[in-house]
Amino acid sequence: MAISILQRIPVVAGLAYIERTRRIQGRVTATLSAERENRYFLHAIAVHVDGGKVGYVAPEVARHYYEPTLAWTGAPLTCPGRSGSASDHHTSGVEMLLDFTDLPLQPVD
Description:
109 residues, 23% helix
C-alpha cells in the first residue's frame, strides 16, 4: 500500500519545542489550532499533544489549511501523529509527522 503525502505532514518544532517533541514516542493524537495572533507566521497552525504545544504544521502545508482550521467550530480538531523515524530526522530534521488523511477540512488553494 502506497503512503499518501497526507500521512506525512511535518511538524516544525524550533528550539522552543524540540525537547517536548523529542519526548513523543510512537503514536499520539494531536490537536490543531489556528493562531490568528501569531506575528511571525502568517498561517500558523499550532500542534498540541497532551495539552502542550509541540510545534507548528509546516508552512508549505499550513497555508492551505489555515483558513479552514480558523473557521472550524466543531469539537477540537484532532488528527493522528507519530514520532518521526531516525531517517526523517537525519534527512530533514523532522521529529514528528501528522496524518491529515481523515481531517474533516478541505484545503484551500
